[in-house]
Amino acid sequence: MQTLPETLPALPEIINGLPNICGWETEVLSVVNHDAPVFLPKTNLHLEDINAGFAIALHMHQPTIPAGYDGGLISNLQYMFEHPGEGDNHNAGPFAYCYSRMGDFIPELVSQGCNPRVMLDYSGNLFWGLRQMGRSDIIDNLKRITCDRTYQPYVEWLGTMWSHAVIPSTPIADIKLQILAWQQHFAAIFGWEALARVKGFSPPEMHLPNHPDTFFAFVKALKECGYRWLLVQEHSVETISGQSLIHKHLPHRLIARNSQGETISITALIKTQGSDTKLVGQMQPYYEAKTLSKQQLGNVLIPPIVSQIGDGENGGVMMNEFPSAFNQAWWDMVNHGGGKTGVVGMCGTEYLELITDAGCQPEDYPTCQPVGQHYIWERVSADNVQPEAVENAILELKQTNPNFHMDGASWTNHISWVKGYENVLSPMYQLSSAFHENVNELLATQSPASLTKKSNYRNLLLHNLLLQTSCFRYWGQGTWTDYAREIFQRGEELLQANNW
């Protein structure tokens, strides 16, 4: 495990009522940028004993909305508790329990001799909202399985965008700010050592950008922020020649190529099938893994991995059926190999570290790229990769291919995060542009470390990130788009006050 610098400060979680999302960027980057193994020194799994593995992740999120006392920013979960008669708000209590329950399940299973694994993906909004609501009991339960070394081998946190922003329509300049905000907030809650172990990334809504420049900026930001791999939806990527993936239970090398001809890559684990929470809720990945056997990767025979993510709280299956199915699967594994041989649960980073230790390198992985990109690269010659040629190819494709678009792909492809939401997107880009214009002017006279610690900067950054929350472009026109307009107006007022 990485040795942390001795000079790291203890971070406050809340500063003047706001979440700690900026000001210690240098320290965050010094902690996350390391190549030390995270799981390998502690794992009780041995690759030669395993036929196949599976990895499940639970995604948790509640948006921040301007609906508290006097229009204050509160968690939608708090609003649900305060208005139980509206819609499905009666689920507020069960939702809150779902956010906490892994802190009970993992210690119980370990005490019973099981060998459980789970990956957790919580938005920054949710972390802040729980603290705002005084639900320290939930956060403390999560700290138990995050900070107690007894349980660290069984739990992996995945990074994400702080305010659950879908990446294809997030202003490129804000992608890295979203990633860093989550990392700093996480460190403030769970500590620097816990942050150093966060090596996998979960894009909100599994929404992967397919515009070459947006995707390149995303992967570049991930790598600069210390991430080694990300989870991607099976149908959001394609082979380099434009085919569907063949080896979906093996890690892939995801290639990013921009309109300047630059190329970088990052490891991807492929989330299979659709978005139905039943797949996780009923532990389908375990039962699918039972049908698989070792596969050749490079010169090494390795166990394939079935990767799956679902909402951890949403729907009757997750609220009611998941606990018994989760427990039953681990008990079943104990009875068939002690939970350490045959078919086993794994965390994503654990799996990748194990196969790397066995001799697999990313160069051995099958390659893929965002869906639809092969159409572009068929039209742009290798010696003419420049912005104009790429944009001309995109325009031509949009005119000749009715199914072609640069909106990205997600696990909810029947819903667009762009069409019909110009009244949210336009203000979102406007606020982001004004934010960066102001920041660039201020950076001419002061250092980034000085500026980003200022309360006014933090407040404006918060509003900029909050406006990018996907929920304001999910529920249709009405209350939720009104929330977005209110956040935009407050951001505008903060800019006009100009009291930096």
From TrEMBL:
InterPro entries reported for this sequence: GH57_Enzymes, Glyco_hydro/deAcase_b/a-brl
Signal peptide residue numbers: none
Taxonomy, superkingdom: Bacteria
GO biological process: carbohydrate metabolic process
This protein's name: Glycosyl hydrolase family 57
